[in-house]
Specification:
Number of strands: 16
Largest sheet: 8 strands, mixed
Structural class: alpha+beta
Number of domains: 2
CATH superfamily of the largest domain: Bira Bifunctional Protein, Domain 2
Distance between the termini: 57 Å
Strand content: 15-25%
Order of helices and strands: HHHHEHHHEEHEEHEEEHEEEHEEEHEEH
Radius of gyration: 27 Å
CATH architecture of the largest domain: 2-Layer Sandwich
Strand order of the largest sheet: 1-9-10-11-14-8-7-2
Shape: elongated
CATH class of the largest domain: Alpha Beta
Number of helices: 13
């Protein structure tokens, strides 16, 4: 959400952002309603001043004048009531439009309608070359007995999955790896609620534009969050922090839920596009300073790359186009990880700077050193999100016998094992050291 004064003073810049981000918003209509609101507020203020003046005069007036003042007061009160109703209606219309206003994007962002205009800014690693026929993650996990897709779909419908045995432990190891790294970087580890109120989704920017992507629990007026970011923005809504508390950096872990509305026809095989997943999310609240925000953006992006390098996965970093980044983003970089079964890279991370766009929606503020109250800046990026990254890991690190080579960074979480090759009780026995493989 943008500041009303900024919109009034920079209408052309806002219109340009609306156009290049593909936002359905009429800026002239917003400005017209804003003008109406200010006019109504001015008229209401003048009327209330007259009412106050009349009350003072009434105390000193004679009976004839008092009768006249009473009649004028009744008429004025009715007028003020009508003005308040008009003002409330106009403010509601204005607020609804303000929620749609986009952040002015970074000048270096490619201009384009969607992800097709994204630009690769760097790559790391080389996709593996196999001297055998590799399996995709669905066949590999199913053959090993490490996932049950059919029974999961029987319980939960399409795009459901159930991991078993070593795949569960491998997934948990990936999240523990991310949490340990972020903990070492002084992020506060936090598990957050998945059930959230509507206000939290408005504050983070998921509502109103993306309501159809969110699961609703209508009986309780709650929703299932698609990322820990929703709760983390909401934690500090309507607060005024002290500048000494900033920056606040969280590593939020949670189950996440997304309806993935509108993704029909896209690659949804196995673990690639599911309705429920697990994620460790990086989230930062910092001072309203462009340089500080840019520094944190680089930090969050670098941490995600560090995690992927530790896992031994090839990836590319994208500069996201204006039409792909969404309304609230000032800058967005996606990281796409190599998927052998697809012969291409697929998104596994998304690093975003939002400046004060979320903070204005959530009323998240801080008092700076000179006592001025400002809206904070927020940023976020994935650390580890499974099962998609798990699918990439098992596909890239399989061997000719379709065992999984365990990255060195994950071995401490798997009793030092270098290979995953068994499931169920056999794996548990080996993991506890009764037998080596």
């Amino acid at each position: 959400m943008l500041d009303r004064r900024f919109i009034r003073e920079n209408p052309d810049a806002v219109k340009a952002a609306v156009r290049i981000k593909g936002i359905d918003l009429d800026v002239d209509e917003l400005l017209d309603i804003d003008s109406q609101v200010r006019k109504l507020q001015h008229e209401l203020d003048q009327g209330q001043a007259r009412r106050k003046s009349s009350s003072k005069e009434f105390a000193k007036a004679d009976d004839a004048r008092r009768a006249q003042l009473r009649a004028e007061a009744i008429e004025l009160d009715e007028h003020l009531k009508a003005l308040r109703e008009q003002l409330n209606e106009a403010n509601s219309e204005l607020h609804a439009l303000l929620l749609l206003t986009p952040t002015i994007p970074w000048e270096g962002a490619p201009v384009g309608p969607d992800e097709s205009a994204n630009v690769i800014i760097r790559t790391h690693g080389t996709p593996p070359e196999f001297d055998f026929t590799p399996l995709d993650h669905v066949e590999l996990l199913s053959r090993r007995g490490w996932a049950d897709f059919a029974r999961a779909r029987k319980v939960a419908g399409e795009r459901a999955y159930a991991l078993t045995g070593p795949a569960v432990l491998l997934e948990r190891a990936m999240h523990a790896y991310a949490l340990d790294l972020l903990n070492a970087k002084d992020f506060t580890l936090i598990s957050v609620p998945t059930l959230v109120r509507e206000e939290a989704l408005i504050g983070t920017g998921q509502f109103p534009a993306h309501r159809e992507e969110t699961y609703a629990i209508t009986a309780d007026n709650l929703y299932l969050a698609g990322t820990a970011e929703v709760a983390l923005v909401g934690f500090h809504s309507d607060e005024i922090l002290d500048h000494k508390q900033l920056p606040i950096s969280y590593a939020g872990i949670s189950p996440c839920f997304r309806r993935e509305a509108g993704s029909a026809g896209r690659d949804v095989r196995g673990l690639l596009r599911v309705h429920q997943f697990e994620k460790v999310e990086q989230f930062v609240i910092c001072a309203a300073d462009d340089a500080e925000s840019d520094r944190w953006h680089a930090e969050l992006l670098g941490t995600a790359e560090q995690l992927l390098r530790g896992l031994g996965l090839a990836y590319e970093v994208m500069e996201c186009a204006t039409g792909d980044m969404g309304a609230g983003k000032y800058r967005m970089n996606d990281i796409n990880t190599w998927m052998p079964s697809l012969g291409t890279y697929r998104e596994t991370h998304s690093c975003s700077s939002l400046h004060d766009w979320q903070a204005r929606r959530a009323n998240l503020r801080y008092r700076d050193a000179d006592g001025t109250i400002r809206f904070a800046f927020t940023l976020n990026n994935t650390a580890i999100a499974t099962p998609r990254l798990l699918a990439a890991l098992v596909e890239n690190l399989q061997d000719a016998e379709h065992r999984i080579r365990v990255p060195e960074v994950l071995r401490p979480y798997l009793a030092g094992r270098e290979l995953l090759l068994s499931g169920g009780r056999a794996f548990q026995a080996r993991r506890l050291g009764s037998r080596s493989s």
